[in-house]
Amino acid sequence: MLWACISLPHLALDGVLRQRAGTQAPLVLMDGPQRARALMDVNEPASRAGLRAGQPLTAARALLAHFEAVPFDAGEVEHWHRFLAAVAYRYSSEVALLPNAIVLEVGHSRTLFGPWPELAQRLREDLAQLGFRHRLAAAPAPHAARALAEHADGSAILDAKDLRAGLSHLPVMRSGLPDAMATTLMEMGLRTLGQVLAAPREGLRRRFGNELPQVLDRLTGAAPDGLARYRPPDHFAQRIEFEPEIENLSALLFPLRRLIGDLAAYLSGRDGGVQRFTIELEHRANDSTRVQVGLLEPLRDAEALFEFSRGRLEAQRSGAPVRALRVLADELPPFVPSGRDLFDRRPAHALSMTQLRERLRARLGDRALYQLHDTLDPRPERAQDNRISAFRLEGKAGRDDEAALDEILPRPTWLLERPIPLRGAAPELIAGPERLETGWWDGAPVRRDYYVAQTSQGQRAWIFCAAGQRGPWMLHGWFA
Question: 239 phi and psi, to 5 degrees?
Answer without folding.
Answer: -140, 140
